[in-house]
């Protein structure tokens, strides 16, 4: 379940972030193995002085934990193994992201 989380979440949130004027500046799916963040699933969106990072906690031990950060501050975390379903985890993350974006 966790392996699909970021890709499914990315599908749901890209249009939300783009409509708020954010631009994707990093996607680990398109990074090389020489990038220090390569093993971690992560996407980064930026707008002016705001950075939204959505990523995987760790690729070895905590690969099932994902987070949302606003300017480096963690504002949401989901443990996909404790959710009822992948849809439940994604819906929780989308709601959290919408809350973060409500002041943009």
Describe the structure.
- With 104 residues, this protein is of the alpha+beta class.
- It has one domain (2-101).
- Helices cover 33% and strands 30% of the residues.
- It has two helices and five strands; from the N terminus they run H-E-E-E-E-E-H.
- Strand 3 (50-56) and strand 4 form a beta hairpin.
- Helix 1 runs parallel beside helix 2 (86-101).
Short overview:
33% of the residues lie in helices and 30% in strands.
Topology record:
Layout: H1 2-19, E1 23-27, E2 42-47, E3 50-56, E4 65-70, E5 73-79, H2 86-101
Antiparallel strand pairs: 1-2, 2-3, 3-4, 4-5
Number of domains: 1
The run of helices and strands is: HEEEEEH
- Helix run count: 2
**Separation, N- and C-terminal Cα atoms:** 31 Å
Percentage of residues in strands: 25-35%
The largest sheet, given as strand count, sense and whether it forms a barrel, is: 5 strands, antiparallel
Shape: globular
> Numbering strands along the chain, what is their spatial order in the largest sheet?
1-2-3-4-5
> Radius of gyration in whole Å, from Cα?
13 Å
Q: How would you classify the helix and strand content by structural class?
A: alpha+beta
Weakly predicted, low-confidence segments: none
Helix content: 25-40%
Average of per-residue pLDDT values:
83
Count of strand segments: 5
Characteristics:
104 residues; alpha+beta
